[in-house]
Structures are given as structure tokens and as C-alpha cells.
Amino acid sequence: MTPTAHLVLLLHNHQPIGNFDHIFRQAYEDSYRPFLEVFARYPDIKISLHISGPLMEWLDQNQPGYLDWVASLVRDGRIEIIGGPFYEPILAMIPSADRIGQIRRYTQWLRDRLGAEVRGMWFPERVWEQSFTRDVADAGIEYAVLDDYHFKAAGLRDEDLDGYYLTEDEGRLLAVFPGSERLRYTIPFADPQATIDHVRGLAERRPGAVVVFGDDGEKFGTWPETKKHVYHDRWLERFFEALSANADWLRVTSLGEVYDHISPRGKVYLPDCSYREMTEWALPAARQLELESLRREMEHDPRWDRIRPFLRGGFWRNFRVKYREADEMYARMMNVSRRLQSALQGDPADPDLRAAQLHLYRGQCNCPYWHGAFGGIYLPHLRNAIYHHLIAADTILEKWSRRGEVWVDARAEDYNFDGKPEIRLANDQFAAFLAPHEGGMMYELDVREIRLNLGAGITRRPEAYHQKVLQGEHRGDNGCASIHERIVFKQANLERHVRYDRYPRKSLVDLFFNPDTTLEAAESGEAVLVGDFHTAPYEAAIHANPDRVRVMMSRQGTAAGQTIRLTKAVLLSEGSSVLEIAYRLENLPPHFACQFAVEFNFAGLPGGADDRYFVDPFGKRLGHLGTRLDSAQTAGLGLIDEWQGIDLRLLISVPGGIRAFPIETVSQSEGGFELVHQSVAVQPYWLVRPDEHGQWSVTMRLVADTTAARERRNASRELVHA
Q: Could you give the C-alpha distances from 568 to 75, 502, 582, 693, in angstroms and in order?
């Protein structure tokens, strides 16, 4: 029998919510447009194409001609459009109703804009759980692509993976195609003939074999070194020419054509899984290193090829354990989703609720909820974008339910699903989340006017790749290679910046230091802590009046070898953008020798920009927000961000010192290892001198003035209506 094969080329083009406009434009110029220009010249080749919702909306607004061109190729049968959840959430992260809602919404959008009848789906990051089948099928999807790794984890062998299978959940059916990991590494990095030879071998083994390449379209021009390799050195042209030259036995087709004309190879149930690299990234750092070491030890063992299919990494949902910041975003998103779903039960067509739903969907974009070879959760602008939309949705819901009234309230619930109650203080200006069981810290502070969570920083923690940074290992300078194989340092001396925190970089963190603690010691994390308050549980109580609410938190603990009591109160009034914070220390011995500090961390306020700077209580500039400060005997500090229109002031009743320094992480992205500014740490501190009753107290006011943002927005509206 003559060897034949069907090759499906499925491109996944994606840019996340909140990515910079210039990144969208660069990817368009380097990848999306040139790929289509080359592809259009080969009329016998078909592809399946998935463009994520955030990118599709940007293209529709900024490059509508490109989408018109795609639509014409859809009409000509050259391109099959693949759908999925609109804003690229990982399905394991969102409720069932949102899964179905996002998929259906995007299917309708693609039908309206491109005239495409969507039947297939791209699973974001190919994260799979068997129960997704019913939601995906209920949303109208017939087939999807995962990785061959999923199928091998179910016990299938390489020779079983040259077709597709049916899977089922509660009677709903879905066809699932295994995408080839081997082709993910040969396309476009190996010579085109390597792909031809691999597919020919499969065809000779089983005539009629189906082979699927499903991977990022950014590999064709946006990934490092690929623009020159793919276009200037004509890799893509040579690849299409090689495919055309083998058209007598190799049919380059779409997922839909395979599904319609070729029968499934059988039924399969796939374990919870993703692509191989993702399962490794989901592991704790120490276990990642252990797995890497094991692989190096075993890869030359003659038994390795037999052992490898049974070796698996971690479970995607554990990114929410690995990164508390991901869990905080997830919990915030779930809170909004549940409240919105309840509201929609009563009035599903309400325009305000539909607007809130759109913000919710955008706040579910997956990229900052995890981290691997891409920057992910370590990219502040992506985290800020998620909170921007979640805060917007939350604010709409509050206005909808309260009918625009000025309000304030405090509630104790398990907001982050850890089995213990957190406290939410909220009004029409702020939303503050406190964790009494974790040092009484404030882990989120939303400024509604500019939709910014000042608590969305990062705690510095070990990463497996830090070993490469500390060892100064370099690799990937010779030609074009996959991002999984490159080691590139985007800045010099990164090893000096690898630091780890002993407590979460949040606010209202209560620290007791030795009296001579310096800025350098505090910033490096080497300062000796002589108290046990910073992460210990506090007792908490809520006191509510009609126009204001107060949370009281207290704990008896140890500082400098002494047993003392610390009480702190946080007060919020209706209509106010001021948090009033009061501290009292009791049972202090007469000669108590300790430096007491309260740490605040303010995220979303980048350093290094002239229009983002510190000021003293008299308005004098003290440097940009990446400046290291140690001011003595001062009554406050201001952080001003002119671009966002916020003037943040910390005002203190008892003058003392204030330290400020940047929190920076050494993290990796597709471009290499880099230093990223995450937050501004501000530590007011005092050498405590107790009064005759063994007490000491201080009050602070945290004021967020967003007048500039409001005036700018009002002026913009007036200009639009003029």
C-alpha cells in the first residue's frame, strides 16, 4: 500500500490581556503578518488557526485589514478557525458557567467577524481535566487538540498516536487530537526535511496516519532569533516548498477535514495533564531540580526510553499553592464570578451586569496565574491588568446592588479558601483584605478610581532556574533554538539580586528588629528579626457603625525576649479614600530596646520613571520610586504616580525613620533571565520608648488621592462629547 499521511498545522496566536501595545505591534509585524504573506503563496496548503480573544480584539481595532484577509482565506477554505474560551483562561481556573460562557461568546464573535463556523477548540496551555469534556461539548465544540504527552500518560504508545480519539464525560462526546511534541521542537528549529522524514516514517508504518503540529504562532518570528531564521533565511518558504513537493503522499489539511473524513482510532480517557514542560513547572522548585537531576542521570541508560513515558510532573492547579499571588488572584476572581452569577439569575440581560461579565472574563486570562518559560506571574503589568478588570467588575456589582449609595461595610469570610476567615473592609473608594491568621497583614488594597490593587506584589522565593543564574550558566547563543533550550541573561550580575523573603511582601506586617538595623540589612533580608508577630495569628473583631467600620486585631507574643501585647486597628469610613491605622504596644519593660517597624508594600507603582517619585511631607522630591531611602525623624512619605493619577501619602503621628527600597525579582521569560521591579517596600520604624504604663502607640493615615485621575477622565469624556 502506498504510504500516505495527513499533516495538520495548527497555529495558536496569543497576546495576553494587559500586554503592552508595542508588544502586540511587534508580534504582528514579526510573526502574524509575515506568516500570512508567505502562506498565501502556497494555495495547496491549508492550516487551522487559533487567535486568542485579546489578540483578536487588538487586531480588529488596529489591523482590521489583516482580519479581512483572514476572513477571505476562511471563505476560500484555506484557513479553518479554531475557537476556545474568549480571553484564554485555563479551564481548571474558572467555574463551569464561565467556561461555557466564554466559549460560546467567542464562537459567536468569530462567526460575526470572520464568517467562521467554529467546531474545534484550542485548550489554553493544553491544561486538561476529564470533567472539562461536558462543558466543552455543551458549549458546542466537537473536537480539540491536546499534546501527545496526555495520551502517553493514559498508557498509549507512540504507534497509537497517529490519529485521534473520542473521549466522554456524563454522556457528552469530544474528539481529541494528540499534538506532536517532536514536531514542536523540529518546527521551525530543525531543517524542514526533518519534519518530512518523521511524517514519512509514520506513513510507512501506518498508511493514512494523522500527525498534528499545534503550537505558538510566535515561534515564527517573535521568539528570539526566529524572525531571521524563519523569514530572512527562508525557513518557512523552504518548509512549504517541501510540503508541496511531497503532495503525492502528504496531505496538509485541517482538523475539521480530518474529523469529517477519518474515523477515530478508539476511545480514551485522559488523566489530568498538560504538556510535559508545564507539568514540570508546576512542581515545587526543589522537586523540579530533583526531576532535572534524575533525567540527566537516566537519559543515557538503555532503559530510559521505556521508563520515560511513566514519568510525570505536577498538577496545574498547584500553581495556586506554589504562588500565593496566583491563589489571591484566583480567589478574587471566584468571588466576583459567584456574585455575578447570582445577580445574572435575576436579570441576565441587564447591561451593567453584562459589562461586569466582560470585565470578569478578561480578568480570567491565564498568563499571570502561573510561571514557566514565560514571565507569567512575575510580570507586573499582566497582574495589574487582571486586577484592573476584577476591580472594575466588583465595582459595577457594588453599584448595581447598592443603587449608587455611599456605603461602607466589613465582612469576615474565607475569601481565599484556606479554611480560615479573612476580613474585607470596603466602601465606594477602597477594598482592603486583611488576614488576621497571617500576622494581621493587609494582602490586598484596591483603589477603585484607578482600578489598581496596591497589594499585588510578589514575595521573592526560590525558583529552579536560579541555580543557573547563580552558576552563571549560559547557553543558546549559537543560532536559533527553542526557548526551552536557551539560557540568556538580559542584565549583568543577576546573581547578586537573587534574594528570598522570610515573610510575605504585603502591608501591615509587624516587624521587630535589633536597634541598629540598617537600610541595607532590611533590604537584603539579612536583618535579624527579634519578634514573632510578622506571620503569627491575631485575634480579630469587627466594630461597625452606620458610617464607618473598624477591625481590631491583637496578639500577645515575644519581642526582644519580652512578652508584650500588640494591638492594631484599621478604620474605614463611607465615601473615604483614607485608611486610618492605629498601633498600641503594651506590657513593655522600662528599658525595652527594640526597633519596631510596620512594613507596607505598594505594587503597581514602577520605579525608574521621572513621573513616578517619592516626596517628603513638605512636597520635596526624593527620587523615583526605585530609589533607596532612609529618612530620619520624619512624619510621613508620599508616593506619586502622575501617569496613573494617584498621590499616595503615609502620614504618621509619631515621627520616626522611614526606609524605602524596591522589591525586585530575578525571573525568566522567553527572552531570558531578567530583573523585574515588583513593589516599593516602605518601612516606618521607631526606637520604642514606653511610657510610665509600659505602653507605646502611633497612628498612621494612608491616603490615596486620585483627583488627578478623575479630572483627567472627566476631561476626556468632555472632549468625546464636545
A: 66, 22, 5, 18
Only one residue has cell 472627566, namely 714
Q: Can you tell me the distance from the alpha carbon of 704 to that of 528, in angstroms, rounded to the nearest whole number?
A: 32
**3-state class of 76 per DSSP?**
coil
Cβ atoms within 10 A of the Cβ of 374, count?
22
Our answer to whether residue 485 is catalytic in this structure is no
Q: Where are the alpha helices (DSSP H) in 434-484?
A: 466-471
The DSSP output letter for 38 is H
Residue type for position 467: Q
Q: What is the pLDDT of residues 413-440, one digit of tens each?
A: 999 999 999 999 999 999 999 999 999 9
| Residue 77 C-beta-side C-alpha neighbours within 13 Å | 5
Say if residue 497 is exposed, middle or buried (CB neighbours under 10 Å; 0-12, 13-18, 19+). middle
Contacts 24+ apart (CB under 8 A), 473-478: 476/224
Cell of 509: 506586617
Catalytic residue among 138, 216, 586, 642: 216
Nearest to 55, CA basis, from 37, 67, 43: 67
Chain segment 128-166, per-residue pLDDT in tens: 999 999 999 999 999 999 999 999 999 999 999 999 999
pTM of the predicted model, to two decimals?
Answer: 0.95
Residues pairing with 6 in the sheet: 210, 251
pLDDT digits (tens, 9 = 90+) for 18-61: 999 999 999 999 999 999 999 999 999 999 999 999 999 999 99
Residue 48 grid cell? 487551522
Q: What is the pLDDT of residue 64?
A: 98
Does the annotation count 299 as an active-site position?
A: no
Q: Which of 30, 57, 80, 125 is catalytic?
A: 125
* CA gyration radius, the chain: 28
The Cα 713–Cα 593 span in angstroms is: 50
Q: Residue 425 and residue 100: Cα distance in Å, rounded?
A: 33
**CA pair distance 700, 706, nearest whole angstrom:** 19
